[in-house]
Amino acid sequence: MEFQREEYVEKLAQRRGNGLVKVITGIRRCGKSYLLFRLFKGRLLKEGVKPNHIVEIALDVEKFEELRDPMALARYVRGKIKGDGKTWYVFIDEIQYSRKVLRPGVDLSKVAPEDIETCYVTFYDVLNELRLMENVEVYVTGSNSRLLSKDVATNFRDRGFEIRVFPLSLAECCAALQGEKGEILEDYLAWGGMPQAVLEKDVAVRERYLKDLFDKVYLKDIRERHKLRDDYVLDGVVDVVSSAIGSLTNPHKLVNTLKSVLKVDTTDVTMKRYLEYLEDAFLFSKARRYDVRGKAYLDRPVKYYAEDVGLRNARLDFREGEKQNQMENVIYNELLRRGYSVDVGVVNATVREGEAVMSRQYEIDFVVNRGNLKLYIQSAYELADKAKREQESESLKRSGDFFAKIIVINGFQRPRADQDGIVTVGLIPFLLEPTILDGAFASAR
Asked: What is the pLDDT averaged over residues 257-262?
């Protein structure tokens, strides 16, 4: 069985010839290497590119360990490329393994402190050199957002183009697996979309795989990269963040939870730093709060969501009774996968209760942004009765604007609007139809 990942392959193909380094980012084991070295390479070969015009380097394997020195990497690639007028494709896997090295002949004792960084060669220097070579297309993968995503937008600006790869979507799972869509969704909410987990049929093996990924790959990477010795603090942070999915929180609140529940002492500063490590490793992402009526961002609190719901469930030992949180996490990830910017909405309103007039704050699960347009989404696993529907609709109706409003529920229901214009749609069509929100955005123009 092969996951085609056609959307990503097409993105890679469309960026050929743009003069930029194509930077493929995402959590480890989500399929970046497979995408580049198998699927995209396969497309190039079908189009007539000769195998010897594709230079493949995997920096995370022992065979290429010496090429983690960026100067050695540059020499190796230059030695492979011949000036024959044809296009050469350079694939470098897990570029974050590259080290920075001191330039030959530099005496740091004679260098001003503010100029120290210029004395080192990094993989950014190598990629820029390769980018400027005639008839060379450069593609790299990486699993650390601080080294890649953030730098593509800052010091690597105008030289790199990021293609973010996510674990498998429900649509990709349904396209590859045989079975009823409702059953595939149930598995997806429990086990997520890490490719190896989706392929594994043995439940016990699948469970162990996801737990080992967390402990022996992701957390090990973080410990080694940041030279952490207090493993129990990192473990505790991961546990409390996993438990807080879909809940408003902040570093101080998480510190208190860590102390009261897990009996682990730490500080707000340490918590903030560890949260950044988890975000850099693509394990969790942060959704900021947006004041819908005030049209302003609020610094705190925020919500954290797991990159893959199966990994998060594995960390919590697959506890039952969390369908709502799983569903909310899956919706959030799908919105990011489709390229939307996503915030958590806050609506401050004045309400009358009897003779009293009170200020009340309502929450909208997701404010979904496309350019200057927005739409609002509530996630509700089920609407059991009229009272529950009114509860989920209240914040949407109080938004004070005319942007589209949607409630996503479990199941197959096709989009259907009520008398207030609020659309209810089932999770399955929402996840399987990538253009399902286009009409809602079009109506907001």
From this structure: 90
Name 275's Cβ contacts closer than 8 Å, sequence gap at least 6: 237, 241, 251, 254, 284, 286, 304
Here the tokens at position 442 are 């079009």
Question: Coil, strand, or helix at residue 121?
Answer: strand
Split at pLDDT 50, 70, 90, the class of 152 is low
pTM: 0.93
Q: Report angle CA 413, 416, 420 to the nearest 5 degrees.
A: 140
Kindly report each contact of residues 245-248 with a partner whose C-beta sits within 8 Å and lies 24 or more positions away, as own/partner: 245/303, 245/304, 245/305, 245/306, 245/312, 245/325, 245/328, 245/329, 246/303, 246/305, 246/324, 246/325, 246/328, 246/329, 247/303, 248/289, 248/301, 248/302, 248/303, 248/344, 248/363
Non-local CB neighbours of 276 within 8 Å, separated by 6+ positions: 146
What gap in Å lies between CA 23 and CA 2, rounded to an integer?
23
DSSP 221-268: HHHHHHT---HHHHHHHHHHHHHTTTS-B-HHHHHHHHHHHH-----H
Contact (Cβ atoms closer than 8 angstroms) between residue 52 and residue 89: no
3-state secondary structure of 23: strand
Whole-angstrom Cα distance, residue 280 to residue 149? 9
pLDDT digits (tens, 9 = 90+) for 368-381: 998 888 999 999 99
For the cut 80, the answer to whether the pLDDT of residue 149 exceeds it is: no
Query: Is the Cβ–Cβ distance between 409 and 381 less than 8 Å?
Result: yes
Average pLDDT score over the chain = 92
Counting Cα atoms < 13 Å in the Cβ hemisphere of 87 gives: 12
Mean pLDDT of 69-76: 97
- Percent above pLDDT 90 for the chain: 81
Q: At what angle do helices 70-80 and 123-131 cross, to 10 degrees?
A: 20
* 203: number of Cβ within 10 Å: 12
- How high is the pLDDT of residue 72? 97
Report how far residue 354's alpha carbon sits from residue 201's, in angstroms, rounded to the nearest whole number.
58
> 47: closest CA among 89, 85, 8?
89
Q: How far apart are CA 304 and CA 306, in angstroms?
A: 7
Nearest-CA neighbor of 196 among 311, 279, 307? 311
Place of tokens 């649509």: 171
| CB of 129 closer than 8 Å to CB of 80 | no
